Amino acid sequence: MSDSTLAPSCPAQDNSAISAAPSAARGLLYVTFTALSWGTTGATATLALASSGLGPVALTFWRGAGGFALLLAVRLLAPSRRRARRGRAAGPLRRRIVPALVNGVGLTVFNAAFFAAVEATGTAVGTVVTLGAAPVLAAAAGRLLMGERLGTGGRLATGGAIAGLAVLVLGGGAGTVRPAGVALALLSGAGYALFTVYTRHLGRTGRAADPFGTTLTSFGVCTVALLPLAAAEGLLPHTRELGVTLGLMAYLVTVPTALAYALFFTGLQAVRATTATVITLLEPVTAAVIAVTLLGERLTAATVAGTAVLMGSVAALALAEARSAAAPAPAPVSGR
């Protein structure tokens, strides 16, 4: 699933658990590759759903299971990770289980609702709405639940994102924008907001975890949680185009999932989260280009205009958050 909006919320890296930080140029290359590969997720899901006969829940299950297996293999086989795991205290069981469950549920909703949105309203619109709504919902939740300040720039960017979403939804024709698909995309964004805000909370309280381990356990929870639902929906693909289905699912699990996450977290060691957020706006652009050129989807002028406003507002929101983070903290007020 598209995951570019993870950039602003990744916790501090555990340098004992990962390899040496790359150069800035290599970090930018990693993040750019990640954005482009994530941009292919929606189109790959569309083709896989058509060739396999699977539903979005089953497809999400297989993505989660495959991603978990590959990331687990990396963790078990990488020498640096084995040494870090032996030298790191386990900590109270509850402090490990609760984050795994919260982040796993958020990741599950984020992915399953996204695939359902793509199936309902198309790759381009589903991707744009999800990626536009996700950071806005996360910013709003951070303001309401954690007292984070958006500032004037942040409020204007959020308002612009809402306006862009309205133009996209209300201006698009019935053949390009479907309300059910938009609602699913918003649900996907809410799943993102859940684990984003919770990750921020953990970081603020000094409980930030290794992001590789967080991703691994989140995919594990996703796999377990979706197994009964995927079984009810239909767990196995039909055999008519089995070769095509297996090829598409192999690509989905390896490139935009396991490889992309690994490169993204590595790149974030050398690239600021805000810079990564702006770079990963390549994802909806890539998704839209693929949808129009390869899948034959049609974008109206209103859809293009709404997309431009929405993505521009997301970039402005990221810059506003960067300025807010760089500003000195206000002096404490007596009596509060």
TrEMBL record:
Keywords: Membrane, Transmembrane, Transmembrane helix
SUPFAM superfamilies from the UniProt entry: Multidrug resistance efflux transporter EmrE
Record flagged with keyword Membrane: yes
Membrane topology type: Multi-pass membrane protein
Pfam families linked: EamA
Subcellular location: Membrane
Tagged with keyword Membrane: yes
Chain ranges of the EamA domain: 26-169, 181-316
InterPro entries: AA-Vitamin_Transporters (IPR050638), EamA_dom (IPR000620), EmrE-like (IPR037185)
Residue spans crossing the bilayer: 28-49, 61-78, 98-118, 124-144, 156-174, 180-199, 211-230, 242-264, 276-295, 301-320
Listed PANTHER family: EAMA DOMAIN-CONTAINING PROTEIN, INNER MEMBRANE TRANSPORTER
Family statement drawn from the similarity comment of this UniProt entry: Belongs to the EamA transporter family.
Protein name: EamA family transporter
Species this chain originates from: Streptomyces luteireticuli
